[in-house]
Amino acid sequence: MPNKTGLADQLRQTVSGPVLTASDEGFAAELAGFKTNVQHRPDVVVGIISAADAAAVVAVANETGTPVHVLATGHGLPAPVTEGIVITTSRLKGLTVDPATKTAHIEAGCRWGEVIAAAAEHGLAPIAGASGTVGCVGLVLGGGYGPLVRTYGVASDWVRGFELVTGTGELVTANATEHPDLFWALRGGKGGFGVVTSVDVELVELSTLYGGSIFFGTSEIESVFRTWVDWTTTLPETATTSAVILRLPPLEFIPEPLRGQTVLNVRFAYVGRPEEGAELLAPIRAAGSVLIDAVAEMPAAEIARIHNDPTEPTLSWDRGVLLGELDAGFADAFLGAVGPDQQVPLVAVEVRHLGGAASRDVPEGSAVGGRGGAYSLFMVGAPDPSLHEAVLPAVAERVLGGVQKWTSAENAVNLADGFALPGSYEACWPAETLTRLGEVRATYDPDRRFPYGPR
Ligand SMILES: Cc1cc2nc3c(=O)[nH]c(=O)nc-3n(C[C@H](O)[C@H](O)[C@H](O)COP(=O)(O)OP(=O)(O)OC[C@H]3O[C@@H](n4cnc5c(N)ncnc54)[C@H](O)[C@@H]3O)c2cc1C
């Protein structure tokens, strides 16, 4: 392998976008992402501006035996990259919506919020994740749970094709008819195939839905959460919900009456007539005295409002698992571990109701794991870096120990936090899928130019 300067010089000869090493101005800014505590220090970062740039980087990487990592928004990648080349995709901003075919062509630097806004102009919506700032490609490579997941399935179910530069340096299209093995793998298999330069997704006709958030105060959390667990078992697939205990800091940007409070936030999304949605939600509205009720008919363009995820870069620590079917015993165990009486440094502990369309694979098959998860459990730690190394992992382990009886043997790769838990990589896919993913990687990235998963 050449030294960093030699590698950068070689890349500059063939790449049109910026090529930066640690001694160049803009190096840290090029590598900054959503998780401000994750600071990457690769040998070189390359801001690609085209698929040709991606191919040029891979050619140099293959010539020099250098590993390549891909960074879009930085919502994933929990551990810093300390070697090789990082390709950043933020300059690939092309986005077109074709209302005639109800599809969107999305370049790798786009975030879901941009696609939601562009599709809404035509009364269409993508099946995206909960947050508008997560990257489109990173989410679909891992499947992708969103606020409508029970109704429409995971985001990757709606992908109709990818363009990518593989580990061998070839620019290929992967769809149902071209490289179908690679298409199968990219829908849920996550990493280790190459750099995706664009993705085509089918959109659904949806301009409004009945959805939003309801907040309950500290004293209501226990009884409403118990009702919520019970109520989810009655919901049709046209309804998707999650419940999250939030420990909100006393900061000004948080509106009263939530500021500085521990609250329960129930999110709800119903695809159908508003009156039917309101009827379905009635048991939750009646379960306790409500602090804020912001569930109503809403434009699909505002769907990210349902979860209200943070949009600005932040110190971030998270961990998630899938759960099986829940019962009253789960509510006891969950509240015993993270309920309002517990002192836990977790700003958010969320349970999402999955199942429905998320449990069914696409007819042609995809590598999405975790289809059997009936719910997910996701913890976000307090934004204090001194807790990240030891305290939060120990807290998470205690919480997971308390609900172990309901934890699924499967996990979902978008929740797994870089496989921090022992065995969590293997848990993200059934054994047969893992074997097949290995075979596809061996074809398209035989030298592991795009390192992924445990070695
Ligand atoms: C606040 C927040 C909210 C979230 N909400 C959801 C949610 O609702 N549903 C859900 O399913 N997940 C959710 N996630 C998880 C998220 O989907 C994953 O972390 C995803 O990997 C983020 O992709 P990214 O491109 O934004 O991030 P990045 O950190 O930039 O990328 C993560 C990984 O994706 C791969 N990748 C990204 N772009 C490319 C590319 N062009 N070519 C090849 N590989 C690429 C790489 O392996 C990279 O390491 C959330 C995460 C956060 C922090």
Attribute tags:
455 residues, alpha+beta, Uridine Diphospho-n-acetylenolpyruvylglucosamine Reductase, domain 2, Vanillyl-alcohol Oxidase, Chain A, domain 3, seven-stranded antiparallel beta sheet, five-stranded antiparallel beta sheet, 14 helices, binds flavin-adenine dinucleotide
Explain what you see.
- The chain is of the alpha+beta class.
- The protein has three domains: 14-88, Uridine Diphospho-n-acetylenolpyruvylglucosamine Reductase, domain 2, CATH 3.30.43.10; 95-205, 2-Layer Sandwich (Uridine Diphospho-n-acetylenolpyruvylglucosamine Reductase, domain 3), CATH 3.30.465; 208-427, Vanillyl-alcohol Oxidase, Chain A, domain 3, CATH 3.40.462.20.
- The chain contains 14 helices and 18 strands.
- The strands form four sheets. A seven-stranded antiparallel beta sheet has the order 15-12-14-13-17-18-16.
- The two termini are 20 Å apart.
- Bound molecules: flavin-adenine dinucleotide.
- Flavin-adenine dinucleotide binds next to strand 3, helix 5 and strand 10.
The CATH architecture of the largest domain comes to: 3-Layer(aba) Sandwich
Bound molecules: flavin-adenine dinucleotide
- Specify Rg, calculated over alpha carbons: 22 Å
Across the major sheet, the strand order is 15-12-14-13-17-18-16
Shape: globular
CATH topology (level 3) name of the largest domain: Vanillyl-alcohol Oxidase, Chain A, domain 3
The quaternary structure here is: single chain
Q: Helical segment tally?
A: 14
Question: What would you call the structural class?
Answer: alpha+beta
CATH class assignment of the largest domain: Alpha Beta
Sheet with most strands: 7 strands, antiparallel
Helix coverage percent of residues? Answer: 25-40%
Strand-residue proportion: 15-25%
